[in-house]
Amino acid sequence: MTSTEVRSPLVARAIPYLPLGLFAALGASLAYVVRLPCRTGGWNDQISTYTNFCYTDIYPLYFDRQLATQNPYFADVPFDKQVEYPVVLGEVMQAFSWIARWLEPDQVAQAVRFYDLTVILLGVSLVAGVLLMAAVAGPTRRWDPLWYAVAPAVVLAAYINWDLIAGALSMGMLLAWARKRQVLAGVLLGLAIATKFYPLMFVGALFLLTWRTGRWRPFLVTMGSAAGAWLVVNLPFMVFAWDGWRRFYVFSQERGVDWGSPWLFFQNKGWPVLGEADVSTLGMASLAILCFGIAVLTLAAPRRPRLAQICFLALAAFMITNKVWSPQFVLWLVPFAVLARPNWKPLALWQLAEVWYFVAIWLYLLAQPPLSRDDLGIGDDTYFTAVWGRVITIGIMMAFVVRDILRPDKDVVRQAGLDDQAGGVFAGARDRFTLASIAR
């Protein structure tokens, strides 16, 4: 057998993904262009940063977290200046800060180089996430990942923070699960949770579908692998840099209500109870109620829901009830929203709401102290139209997904002859436990 004969099947399988990879590269490039006004000097002026809509955490944190001189988690800095991210992101920041220091002697030039290097990784993560998502979606829905590649909100939010890395790991986890490679799925899930905390919501989705199908061994193998991978990357920092390691968890617990959260509206308007009670308690209680509803739905549905549907509902519930809802959080939800219900009308409506929020938050910050530029910014009421625009449009998509679960004949994915393109061991599985079985 010649080398050409060996390579041809692989090349043939790769060709359908090439256009999607090019579109994802286009989206990554457009995201870089969006921030060029800041990269060429705008980051040094808050007004310029906000009016050009090119804010990013990457550049200022290079200075504010002492990356120019010290290493994350081990830095000799006040506790509130430690890196407030899980360890995978902290180590990415450390590696790129080392390279930036080696390439540039000047700290300002280092910060720009640090941004460029980070953006390259994030762009690669977007391309990888799109290609992995296409593999999960399968041949019948291959073009659905275009929403992830070039959606306006994705382009605008891509380089605000490091979220695209967790997105690629999450899509890798979903593909590994779909291919019944539970150990790999668990390792990728553990790394994703050690990158950004939101993939933890997928554990609940896997658990509920495992409960319904009785496929406990694959679930336990995946969870064991996830716990092992998480421990491998976290344990050295827990032992040797405890204060730096726990900064993320303390920050998450103690953080008050912040931009984008519906709770901010209730506080701003002085609503009784909703605007006065402890937001952490309210948020956790609200999330618990929604998750209970998702559990009932999963176990009561006439046909087993698809994994992507439950992942989407769980993640959307987490975002709506959270204390903070940053613009880049759209990157978490897009791939799962598309896999759950690839219908362009509600997705387009949601994208419009996300774009309006992206514009509104920076205009709103212009009008807030210390800038207080009312001539350039917007006030509370206008800003909160953007906050509720996101809540309402995501709520609409959640309602459609619930409808599809209760009426599987309305699910456009299953109309293509699929049971569950990401289901892995769940696909085609018989029900072992449902709420209806209790009544029998």
From TrEMBL:
| InterPro entries in the cross-refs | GT87, UCP010361
Superkingdom of the source? Bacteria
Q: Which residues form a coiled coil?
A: none
Keyword match Transmembrane: yes
A single GO molecular function, which one? Answer: hexosyltransferase activity
GO cellular component entries: plasma membrane
Q: Where in the cell is it found?
A: Cell membrane
Can the keyword Lipid biosynthesis be found in this entry's annotation?
no
Key words, A-Z: Cell membrane, Membrane, Transferase, Transmembrane, Transmembrane helix
* Primary localization: membrane
- Pfam families named in the record: GT87
**Membrane topology according to the record:** Multi-pass membrane protein
Bilayer-crossing residues are: 14-34, 114-137, 149-176, 183-207, 219-242, 279-301, 307-326, 347-367, 387-406
Q: Which family does the record assign?
A: Belongs to the glycosyltransferase 87 family.
Q: What is this protein called?
A: DUF2029 domain-containing protein
Species of the source? Nonomuraea diastatica
